[in-house]
Amino acid sequence: MYPAHLKYMSGHIWVRMENGKAIIGVTDYLVDEKGPFSYLDLPAVGAVIEQLQEIGSIETDREAITIMAPLSGKVLQINDSLDESTMDLLYDSPYEDGWLISLKPTDEEELESLMNAEEYESYVESLQEEEPTDEVEPSYTQFE
Fold this sequence. Notes:
The chain is an alpha+beta fold. The protein has a single domain (about 5-110), classed as CATH 2.40.50.100. It is about 20% helix and about 30% strand. The radius of gyration is 18 Å and the shape is globular.
């Protein structure tokens, strides 16, 4: 279900390594569960970030979702195609055109701490099992 060539973290962030660069984005699970998005805040080009550091946020009408860095490194590029008027890329192509940033990793061994597609799918399934449903359990009262 999730692209096998990517690595994932529990914050619903994916990483794709390309020619020594890490391309980073959000998963379609996050897009489907939390969207629609109205605002995106990303780090500046040149920013040096540490793994698990807050690097930005995606906002909806209801909440701001924190984006955590899956890897340490220096931000090389942000996806200028994403702004309030073109957030559709996150929905239409979350794993290709809807990427958020690229960075030059300082420690590629950090990739080993991330989940593969199968592990991420299991993680998402466990979240769905925990989610409360809108269904109301029938309750019975006995009158004497």
